[in-house]
Amino acid sequence: MDKETGPEPGRDAPDRSRAALLDKRGLFAVVLSGALCALAFLATIPLPRVDGKLIGSDGIRYYAITRSLVLDRDFDYRNDYTLLNEPIHLARTGLVENASGIGTGILWLPFFLIAHVISLVLNALGWHVPTNGIGYLYEASVCLGTIAYGTVGFVLAFKSACRVLVRPIPGARLATLGMLWATPAVYYLIAEPSMSHGISVFAIALFFHWWHPPGREDSAWRWFRLGLAAGLVTLVRPQDGVIALVPVGELAWRVARGQSSVTRGLRDLAVFTSVAAVCESPQLVMWLAIYGTAVTVPQGASWFNWFDLHILETLFSTRHGLLSWHPLYLFALLGLVPLFRRERATAIAISFVFLAELYVNSAATRWWQDDAFGGRRFVSLVPLLAMPLAVLLERSKSRWAPATLILALTAWNGLAMLQYRLGFVSMHESLTWREMTIDRLLLPVQLLQRLLH
Fold first, then answer.
1. What is the pLDDT of residues 420-453, one digit of tens each?
2. Domain map of the chain by residue range?
3. Residue 213: is the preceding peptide bond cis (ω within 30°)?
4. How far apart are CA 254 and CA 244, in angstroms?
5. CA-based nearest residue to 206, from 254, 151, 245
6. What distance lies between CA 367 and its chain's CA centroid?
7. Which residues, 6+ apart, have CB-to-CB distance to 76 below 8 Å?
8. Which tens digits make up the pLDDT trace of 272-285?
9. Distance (Å, whole) CA 168 – CA 157
């Protein structure tokens, strides 16, 4: 075995198969975490809400897609926006603008339909509940759908992390739980599940689970699955579509090294790209109907400035900087070094996706991501980064240090969530370093004072 490039496909199969069967306690912990997120979301429903809605922000536009697909079967969101109290801006076609990816709306369909059937049955039994797709029953259902998809995503991330470890216990478990509880992912599962971030965790995790390890399988069926997953990723959040370049790069590498013939490489590429294109077609149809063109940046040409990057700000600014708000990402990125020694291709792929996402997000005119709990546009990366974090934690010589680190960063993230959600800090402006350090540590005292007064 080449220590630098990792095990060859098929080598150490019994050990890897045993690791892939999973640490059952770890799997239970991940599923339990998802259940706790669902319970936390349900517990907040009775709390007073200014707008009377469970969905908000970008979630309104995702939800309009779901409602319109089921009840109106069109891309005219005027009535949906009116019911949801969303401002109406018309595109040049005369239809209401909706720049959101259609994938979240599509994946919500089963949960919306369940709520709709329940509403119809309750009305038939004499209960007077809304059947127009608006109300807590419908909205809670799709939000729980996001939590369900996110939980499956973390289960897949856990399985992928187990594959790369010599001893999957407890590194894979700690890494996966850390990426759930100590990153912005937990906020967008509990506090804002109507946004697309929880579902993007599922889509990326599914893609990576089917892709990793590279070279394990070389069949048309593998490239079909990868095309399906890449199309889904792009449907949910178009900017995450950069991950489609990973299998393209793998194909080019295989052909260049003589591991695959040019003819077979072109065949696999055709399978992958055609399936991905078919999966992406609902988005193209939607944008064609609304904007008059299938390929567009619907937010406008000024949404990105590809030559005016804000990389340092995106990473370190107190205005939702990724590493300043969520230090666990730094440890995950450091884990790419030992992962490179173990599985070079995997480390390169994860590094590429991270750098591509960093480029896209730092090129955004509003790089601070508007109202955001930390680096929300990087939530989709948590399934990928669980693997290098697991490798880093596995290398620790201390039995307790990895668990202590994850617990400490989880507590820190929890304090940040309370500080942000309860209005102790601005949701959209830069914070002071005092707010991000001393005031955060003193938050329990501030909460107690608020309750007493």
1. 999 999 999 999 999 999 999 999 999 988 888 7
2. 13-452
3. yes
4. 16
5. 151
6. 18
7. 68, 95, 96
8. 999 999 999 999 99
9. 13
